[in-house]
Amino acid sequence: MDGLNHLTQARVQNLPSLPSQSSSITAGHYVIKHLEEEAVEAWDSQIQTKIWFKSPPLAQDTIRLINGVKLFAESHDQGFCGDDEQGNWTWLEIAILEKEQDTSPKKIGKEELSKESHMNSFCTKDYTWLGGRVFRMDEDFLSSLEEGNVIAVRLCAQYPSWEIYARKGHLVFDVGSGDGPWPIRPLPCNGFQVPRRRNVKEWFDKAKNPANEEAKELSLFIAAMQKFQSLPPTNQLSYFRIAGIHDYPRNVSWNMDKKPIPYHDDDDVRRKKPVKNEENGSYCEHNTTLFPTWHRCYLLLFERRVSDLMKEEVKNRGRDRDEKWVEAASRWRLPYWDWAANPQLPELVANERIKVIVSWDATTDKCETAEVNNPMYRFQMPGGLVMGDKSYGDYRIQTDGEGPWDVCIGTSRHAISLYSEQNLWVQGHTVSEKVNKAFEKTKMQGQTLKDAVYRLLGNDYIPQYKYFATTKFTDPSGPKGYLSLEAIHNTVHNCIGGNTPMGIGHMEAPAVAAFDPVFWLHHSNVDRLLYLWQQVNGSLWFHSSDGCDDESATTPLRPFRKYVGKHGFYNSDAVRKTSDLGYTYDDSDKITDGEGHVCDEFLRKRINELYGPDKDAFERPETDVDPVINIDYDRYALGGLQYTLFFFIGPVRRNVPYAQQESLAGSMYTFSSPLQRSSKREGDGDSTKSKYSSPATGCSNCNKQADAGVRSRAQVPLTRSIPREKRTTRAEAEKFLKEELSWVAVISRGSLRMPREVFGKGLELSLWIGTNKLPDDRTGKTVFEDYVDVKWDWKEAEL
């Protein structure tokens, strides 16, 4: 980029023209030339402008390659001025036009997208070669460029007798490679109110009717996802590569302008090879305070990528002049699945085929629909080979024994099993009934999940952001502080993917979870809960006194770049407000007044209606006994192997997986990945060395936490799982739980029980009994208080 400031006139005049096809563009400098002379004269105090020349309409694939733009031109003014101290009133501007035929700049709100490039030469009739400022695509108004927009050069003059003459205009583009750093630009609102991310059930129900505007959104979305998933792993903006940011393949970086770290036949060589932080992949922030904001950036990237492809699809269909299709592409935002209020796998992701509009006549308003393969049902590797096939080279998935992911072509849910005779899971398969049962069970697990979300969003239940954000253990300053957004998120991953011998799926493993298309609907809801918590808790955010210097509001959220440059990464402060990122949630329509301000009563009513007890409970509010289980655990206690704690109220049946027991009241899932032990034995050499390796393909965050002994926490509310008549008093609730409460820890995807002794001090359980008091209507606030630590024999309660 700095090269734009050092280009000589001779160099600029000999640059190649910007190719019309993005496929013909390689990294370097390109130019759009206009050699003819043009002039503008001012007559009064009004600014007089004229479009001098402009680029052709820019394709999205071209826009994403542009790092910066700079204008060079020869120009002069009228050659005289009455008073030098009055200043120079002629200049050149760079502007964005919506369409090629437009004569005035595009607007965002009331502001024209036009910026001064440089002032004209002053009081001379001699042409002077001048260069303007560099417009960075990431920092300036050029980030508002959209598919089909053009960049124009304007001549400007103001006040009587001021004139500008210009010739030999050269608009120079600094262009990067497709694998180079890629800034993520929030989607523009384009004159709309801030677009909403909508409930996927409501959105899809409307989209099934071709007469609704949502049907066009769905049609473009499905086509965009099909194209997205078909791109090869070598393409940094392919579905495979963007899903791979979450973890696998760990040897492939993203947005770092680095090639993959080569696989070797000798794994020990690969593991010992020292690498810099930005060279390997596996960026995901789990068990850290950055968990919510890192994933907010991740969704921003995914949403932007899909939106760009939707807009390309409009153009490919020849609908770029049809306002309804253009508006559908511009209005779309990623839907969310509210699994707490609607614990059923969304229809959008549950079926292999999906019906969409394939053609539409704007004149007659008639459309044709057809069933097509549904890219939201599963992701399948382009080329139809298993993910670990060596033909994918260093982009293949190599699991090192962590799971069957390298022998899958597609993603599955509750389907990968040694007991499967048809092996449908190789291509990718979903057993929807098992996903739904994992959420519902006897309604107890579902009610516990719903209750956990209710508490999470309650005033005063989570006193600080650091407790809300993550499972990472910091002194919770009270029994309520064990609940977190991340812990709830972990449980949902387990429910969707499946974690029993009869069927597992990609969502249960952090290494491959993002390959399942439902991941994005799930995390859109996780982000929505962050949004709602922010509305409830106003100013609560990161605390500089937390003692977590590597987890502050200004910590870079790698690999997500706001702009190109060493320090160009997003941070949590930059993504704090969703409206700054081009979206909000449909909840905003329910929680704001007529002027768009959040109203506390509306907000509490929304949360109480979605996640609170039945309406009748608010009509006869009573002080209720409120038991919760708090868990202090080491997620790396078993070398990073995932394990689950199941809690039951009632009998546990033999020969039924723990996750499918009718008496299951709640669970805690670590959502962790196996660590790799260092080849250096303890006691050999430097005692400060890590006992876990940090290989080229490893997760440095996990290794550091394991070495530091970082602990985690979670909470399982029991109140809605216990009959009301069995907890009228604390003593009665305690007596009931001594008779009915049991628990177990399991690993190996639900098949192997692990006695508590195996965990040593890596697992501490406690039972607390307090009270909760509902308000007398749904606009009030529930009060949770007076918790007492109950002495409990967890050994006796263990199965």
Walk me through the structure:
The chain is elongated. The protein is α+β, with helices and mostly antiparallel strands and 799 residues long. The strands form eight sheets. Strands 1, 2, 4, 9, 10 and 12 form a six-stranded antiparallel β-sheet that branches. It has a four-stranded antiparallel β-sheet with strand order 3-11-5-8, with no helix packed on it. The protein is built from 20 helices and 26 strands. The termini are far apart. Its cofactor is Cu(2+).
Distance between the termini: 64 Å
Structural shape: elongated
Q: Please give the number of β-strands.
A: 26
Low-confidence stretches: 268-272, 679-689, 692-696
Q: Which value, in Å, is the CA radius of gyration?
A: 29 Å
Biggest sheet statistics:
6 strands, antiparallel
Portion of residues in beta strands equals: 15-25%
**Total number of helical segments?**
20
GO molecular function: metal ion binding; tyrosinase activity
Keywords: Copper, Melanin biosynthesis, Metal-binding, Monooxygenase, Oxidoreductase
Enzyme class: oxidoreductase
GO biological process, one term: melanin biosynthetic process
Short description:
By secondary structure, this protein is of the alpha+beta class.
How does the SSE layout of this entry go?
Elements: H1 9-13, E1 28-34, E2 38-41, E3 48-54, H2 60-63, E4 66-76, E5 90-97, E6 107-108, E7 111-112, E8 114-119, E9 128-131, E10 135-136, E11 150-157, E12 163-175, E13 196-197, H3 200-207, H4 213-230, H5 239-243, H6 267-272, H7 291-316, H8 323-331, H9 347-350, E14 353-361, E15 366-373, H10 432-440, H11 444-456, H12 465-469, H13 485-497, E16 499-500, E17 503-504, H14 518-537, E18 584-585, H15 588-591, H16 600-611, H17 615-619, E19 623-633, E20 644-649, E21 664-669, H18 700-708, E22 712-717, H19 730-740, E23 741-747, E24 752-753, E25 763-773, E26 783-790, H20 794-797
Parallel strand pairs: 13-18
Antiparallel strand pairs: 1-12, 2-12, 3-11, 4-9, 4-10, 4-12, 5-8, 5-11, 6-7, 14-15, 16-17, 19-22, 19-25, 20-21, 20-23, 23-24, 25-26
